[in-house]
Amino acid sequence: MVNLTGDEVTGQSSNLSSVVTIVIVTSPTASNPNTEMIDRCIAGVVRSFAALKSCPIIIACDGVQVVDDSVPKKHQQQAKTKRIFGKCTKESFDRYEEYCKALEAREWLIVDRQTEWKGFALTLWSALKQVTTPLVMVLPHDYELSPSALVKIEICGMLHEMMEFTDINYIGLPNPRSSTLKSRHAEALRDLHTRTIVRGDMEISLEPMAMWKENPHFAKIEAYQSIVFSRHYKRGQFIEDTLGQEMLANIKEKGRDAFHGTYLLSLDLPCSFHMDGPRYLPILERQALHYSVQDFEVEAAEQASHFVSKRVHNHI
């Protein structure tokens, strides 16, 4: 176990590069080759948790199958803006290829590319095999963190406690739909209660979750190995649709004995927001089309652009 001491547990500016690896799973979207969406995802992490700014970042790129002329035109049209079971048009494939190459050109990123379509679970598993830190932060490419919602969270202290307690394997970051999930699973979680962790001036509350979800979260790499990927996944499967449902069913039947240490960080407001990857359009393109664009999105995109430019300039 890596022990955090001194400034590592007292300040947001500490360096957690030997403790956490950030893994972002990406796939074709309508906005390719533009990188604005994934840039917002990356920058949102660092803007929210300064202590993660030097952590390794792995971009896990799923593969894709090109749709040929034998595919019905209806599906070809759909594939221009979203994936159809790993398929996309030749035009979308070329744009995705350019997007991946743009990410590979960034020396401060580790890009793990699949040569064929695998789906979220297997694409993530490929990237996790490269992780050498005890903890991992996993995000889909179309989620953005809100720094204002996380301003009171001392990430160094929280992650220290996560490593210290053997029964905490996963800490999810709440989104606007988390409260709905909690109410839906209330009966299954009836024997489990909110957990409060105090360390010095830090106090955080963790609410039990009935299933492992792909939404932004921190997890122990050992738990990914022994719990999540101890089972077989088929191409195209998601963790929450397979293992997650098994976990939910087991907790309903066996209660706390089937609980795997999955928690949700308790906050006053949601801290992670879905950018709707399949339909995401860059800010400038939306403005040119006279679409309504919220001020916070403009600011987030500008912050992301500044962050990436600085990293490229410094080659770190």
What this model shows, in words?
There is one protein chain. With 316 residues, this protein is α/β, with parallel strands linked by helices. It has helices spanning 36-48, 73-78, 90-104, 120-128, 155-164, 178-184, 221-226, 243-254, 283-288, 295-314; strands at 20-26, 57-61, 65-66, 87-88, 110-113, 135-140, 143-145, 170-172, 195-199, 202-208, 217-220, 262-265, 272-274. The strands form 3 sheets. It has a 9-stranded mixed beta sheet, with helices on both faces. A two-stranded parallel sheet has the order 3-4. The model is unreliable at 1-13 and 79-83 (pLDDT under 50).
Structural class: alpha/beta
Order of helices and strands: EHEEHEHEHEEHEHEEEHHEEHH
Give me the side-by-side strand order of the main sheet: 5-2-1-6-11-8-12-10-9
The number of E-state strands comes to 13
Number of helices: 10
Average of per-residue pLDDT values: 89
Low-confidence stretches: 1-13, 79-83
Distance between the termini: 26 Å
